[in-house]
Design the sequence.
């Protein structure tokens, strides 16, 4: 989109056609290799993590080549930027692209990732890209294209400029508090006292420090959305003032005379650009190479999938509870991956092993710790604690910002797909006994009655087929397959 619309909006040719080719092909080839940089210090194999770091750092070159190419395309047109809202949006979009693509490789460095990952720093990073690059680029394209679709002038340049400043302020009010929150989280989670103990052992202490930042983020989002509403109104009025052009005659520059042994336009890459099928095939090949190199060894070599004898498949009730955990969005705020840092093993327990996740489909490692990690939460609290925490989180954790889930007590579990789930998991390699699906519902209800009785001892009455019972069963299972012997 940038290479197509920016030259038209600026009425300038692309600064470097060759650089755009290098930018495109190197970006789509390298990017897929960089995926593991999101999973550093996890149970992912070290070779895959190292591959992700190396290719993430390599991404800086083509990404910044594209940014420089975009900004230099505006050479000779900077005087127009002051008055043309389309070019304003393009400039900020390209700048945001440069910022995000510099920060991405930086965050892939293991010493930086150790502090930043699971924090709001990552939220700030992706929103600079999403709101600044993707959002502003889209706005620029719409403001340039819409009047031409309706063969008229933009309804209000003033409204477009107001949208630009609201959007820019919105990004600043969104990103800066999230950066601050991320730095705060990363440092507080790892802080030890002079006695060698965690300075902030209660995870909630960190959360309470972040609440003002979340309010500021809300202000930023409101400003950004206000600008979008202005744009929608502006484009609507623009469309009303003109008439949609359903089609128009194509225009083309006169053909250059053919030269024997040379391409018609003087550049070999034009050959593939004029052939969309071949272009798509080669682009797909470039993308798939990295994925194939990273995935095929794991598929072919069984020893790459570590197993731990004590790790068993989920029971049918725990399986239903896991689906409720996913349905209610718990994975959005909680991770299930204790990294091998002393600050994390002191807070949560033994670090997570790859073999503990062999029956997790999909895995729920998560990417954000708005709340604490839950991989070792099994057995940490009684069933009644989880019940009260779901109904009213502040009753167990004063000041908690977690939402309430009262409907989990009222909703009944749906066992209609339980047999199919177990049969499907068996096909994928989960070692359920043959015929287990036939008794799965009875087994689930038996386990559910046990949890119901535990709750009854605390004065809590709940039906054994309530969703909250299945969720409690799942939470109490997490991290309990591995028992670490205490040293004496």
Sequence:
């Amino acid at each position: 989109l940038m290479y197509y619309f920016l030259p038209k909006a600026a009425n300038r040719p692309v600064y470097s056609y060759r650089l755009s080719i290098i930018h495109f092909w190197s970006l789509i080839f390298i990017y897929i290799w960089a995926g593991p940089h999101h999973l550093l210090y996890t149970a992912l194999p070290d070779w895959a993590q190292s591959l992700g770091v190396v290719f993430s750092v390599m991404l800086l070159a083509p990404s910044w080549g594209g940014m420089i190419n975009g900004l230099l395309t505006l050479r000779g047109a900077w005087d127009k930027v002051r008055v043309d809202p389309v070019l304003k949006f393009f400039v900020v979009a390209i700048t945001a692209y440069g910022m995000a693509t510099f920060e991405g490789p930086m965050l892939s460095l293991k010493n930086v990732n150790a502090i930043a990952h699971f924090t709001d720093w990552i939220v700030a990073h992706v929103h600079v890209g999403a709101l600044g690059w993707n959002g502003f680029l889209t706005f620029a394209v719409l403001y340039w294209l819409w009047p031409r679709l309706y063969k008229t002038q933009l309804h209000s340049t003033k409204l477009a400029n107001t949208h630009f400043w609201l959007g820019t302020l919105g990004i600043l009010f969104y990103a800066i508090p999230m950066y601050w929150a991320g730095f705060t989280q990363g440092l507080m989670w790892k802080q030890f006292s002079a006695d060698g103990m965690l300075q902030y052992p209660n995870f909630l202490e960190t959360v309470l420090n972040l609440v003002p930042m979340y309010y500021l983020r809300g202000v930023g989002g409101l400003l950004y959305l206000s600008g979008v509403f202005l744009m929608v109104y502006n484009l609507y009025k623009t469309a009303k003032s003109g008439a949609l052009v359903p089609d128009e005659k194509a225009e083309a520059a006169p053909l250059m005379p053919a030269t024997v042994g040379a391409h018609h336009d003087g550049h070999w890459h034009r050959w593939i650009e004029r052939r969309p099928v071949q272009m798509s095939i080669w682009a797909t090949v470039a993308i798939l190479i990295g994925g194939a190199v990273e995935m095929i060894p794991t598929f072919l070599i069984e020893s790459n999938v570590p197993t731990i004898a004590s790790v068993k498949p989920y029971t049918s009730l725990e399986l239903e509870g896991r689906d409720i955990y996913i349905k209610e969005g718990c994975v959005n705020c909680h991770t299930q991956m204790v990294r091998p840092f002393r600050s994390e093993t002191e807070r949560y327990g033994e670090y997570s092993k790859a073999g503990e996740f062999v029956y997790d489909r999909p895995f729920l490692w998560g990417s954000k710790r708005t709340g604490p990690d839950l991989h070792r939460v099994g057995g940490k609290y009684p069933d009644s604690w989880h019940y009260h925490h779901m109904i009213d989180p502040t009753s167990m954790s004063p000041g908690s910002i977690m939402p309430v889930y009262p409907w989990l007590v009222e909703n009944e579990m749906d066992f209609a797909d339980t047999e199919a789930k177990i049969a499907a998991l068996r096909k994928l390699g989960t070692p359920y006994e043959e015929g287990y699906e036939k008794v799965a519902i009875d087994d689930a209800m038996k386990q559910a009655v046990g949890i119901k009785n535990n709750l009854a001892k605390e004065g809590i009455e709940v039906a054994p087929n309530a969703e909250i019972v299945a969720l409690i069963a799942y939470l109490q299972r997490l991290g309990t397959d591995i028992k670490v012997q205490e040293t004496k």
Confidence is low (pLDDT under 50) at residues 259-264. The radius of gyration is 28 Å. The chain has two domains: 2-246+267-286, 316-477. The CA atoms of residues 150 and 239 lie 6 Å apart.
